Amino acid sequence: MAAIRERTALEPHTATILGGGATATSVGLALLELGVQQITLVVRSPERAQETVAVLTAGDGAPHVEVRLLTDPPGDPGGIVVSTVPATAQDAGLVEAMAAAPVLFDVLYDPWPTPLAAAAQGVVVSGLDLLVHQAAVQFTHFTGHEAPLAAMRTAGEQALAARTERSATS
Q1: What is the C-alpha to C-alpha distance for residues 41 and 47, in angstroms, rounded to an integer?
Q2: What are the tens digits of pLDDT across the range 37-47?
Q3: The whole model's pTM is what?
């Protein structure tokens, strides 16, 4: 939630989550805390998304959850799109269908930008944003001090740049 809130004040009521595994479940629960009331899960296999659907729809005030195939994404991606799928699963049709979303949160950080992030027309939240905010929560929890968010982000960017440089020379 903090990674999203850092980049936008949008109060989404609808969301499209690409993927149906554990990361999609975690992100879906966070989106519910942000006020999302309708979630479309766009998955490779509806059977693998059953546990995610069960978790997201448990309890009072559960959102409406629809499951669609990656090959048949919704025409309107809603207020926020969250991608938990590999960059290789982000084909041209999916990218085109999701590009106009007001907010794209792609949990990947390498490779970056992903096809979705490169085509996004709205606010982009990256996997590095997610990692930095996860680390910040841990830092604050363990030390009792506010996390140095800017320094943590710089360190993450430097580590990714070094990783990319090593991959390019290999």
Answers
A1: 12
A2: 999 999 999 99
A3: 0.88
